[in-house]
Amino acid sequence: MTFEGLNEMSSQTLPTTTAAPPENAPSHLAADEPSWARTIGLLGMMLTVLGLTVVTFNEIYGPRIVSKAWGLAFIALGVTATLFHAVRDRDPQIRRAYAIIGYGLIGLMAIISLVNSRNFLSYGWACALTALCLFLSSCRHETDPVPRRRLLATLGILGVIMVAGGLIGGLTSPGFLLTYGLILTLLGLLYLCAFINQCEPLSDVGHKAGLAIGAVAVFVILYAVLRSVVPSLMKSQPAAFLVPNGLLLMFIGLVYGLVSLGIVSDWKLVVLTRRELGGFFFSPVAYIVMLSMALLGWVAYWIFISVLHLSKGLYEPIVLYYYQLFSPIVVIFVVPAITMRLLAEEKRTGTYEVLMCAPVKESTVVLSKFIAGLIFYMLLWAIWALFLIALRVESGTEFDYRPLLSFYLALALSGAGFISMGLFFSSLSKNQIIAAVLTFIGMWVIFLGGRFFQGFEAVGPMWRSVFKHLSYSDVWDAALHGQVHLREIILQGSFTFFWLFLTMKVLEARRWS
Q1: Nearest in space to 159 (alpha carbons), one of 111, 123, 210
Q2: What pLDDT is recorded for position 3?
Q3: Residue 204 · residue 275 · CB < 8 Å
Q4: What is the rounded end-to-end Cα distance, in angstroms, of the chain?
Q5: 57: which residues sit within 8 A by CB, 6+ positions away?
Q6: Residues 6+ apart with CB under 8 A from 214
Q7: Does residue 28 surpass a pLDDT of 60?
Q8: Mean pLDDT of all residues in 81-110
Q9: Window from 274-278, 364-368, 481-485 with minimum mean pLDDT
């Protein structure tokens, strides 16, 4: 066989090379579904339905095997789990279903409040607050402009209605402001803040809404001051309007004014304070602390109600027995949780150098973090005040609320000193745990030091008096009896100034080191 024949045979027997299949890259990626969040949401809905069933049967047929208190606990746990799912799930059908549930809660609030106005204090405000959370979670994930505009309009309209109803009712009826008016005005402010937060960044609608809130604040404060000091503007004596309506109106105006300032102002201190407050709520620590405070407040309220039933009445001020139970110990753990991240987190993440290179002074940085921490501190104690609304509704009788005014003033004064001390310890290290431990030790020294040295006769009456004023539990006890002395204000103010001064010196030393 010739060479050419061999080549011909080999060419016939060898298989031909096939072409490669067409490339389909990139491959299709399936969306990551939050299955565990949906499981939690399903459990939350089951608990909510169970709690509603228990509460309904207890209301209609009287006490059952499972009490109303357990039903409310089931509802609270169920709503919390459901809101967690609403925040996590981005599915269009699910988020719009939650928006529909929010509309249903608003309708339920209106119906039960029209049937009996006391139902608003029991369940109506909770329905409105839950609906706000559902609207926010739906609007946050909504990509279709039409449903998003509908949700924004709902937030704005409901906010205006609540604010107008609370203020008009409070200005015309003295007893309305103390209960319904205060809740409506604060709920309306939350709705308006949610509306402004979800507005488009390039739109000036949020800025105009902030200016409108500021105008309402100026009107309310001027009205309260003028009606309190000018007898011709009122039919009774000025003192009768000043406490509590005048003070409540001034408080509402102050809160509205601060919110308006935070929205429309470009002042460096305001901008940094707004940044720090946002940093609290972008961290899970804030929600853990708020949930813990709510649970502790519920336990303190449950024990307080049990004491009221067993003793068949307590002497005024009865709020003394509610706040004295856990609050002196709770604050020892709350302050380190608030302050440990203020400056230590900046150093750990590397944003501290950027902040120090910005055209702001050390005093501005320190004051912004201090103000943000103090606002969050007072917000936590506001949760405890909500339980007293339930006391007013369930008992059906009034109690002496005026000690609350002096007590929350004492809380703010002592809290300013605590937050400034924690801020100083947070400036010493980039480790949050070290900052928290140092603040925790400082809180225990303040709490136990005053009580420990008061019992020693050898220290003398002057030093015993000094240690008594250093013990914040004694200051709180006096405030709950309606006594806030000028020396306490000066002492706590000096305490706050001392720690803030040390913090600024630490920042100045590190800038030049």
Answers
A1: 210
A2: 47
A3: no
A4: 94
A5: 64
A6: 256, 257, 260, 261, 264
A7: no
A8: 85
A9: 481-485
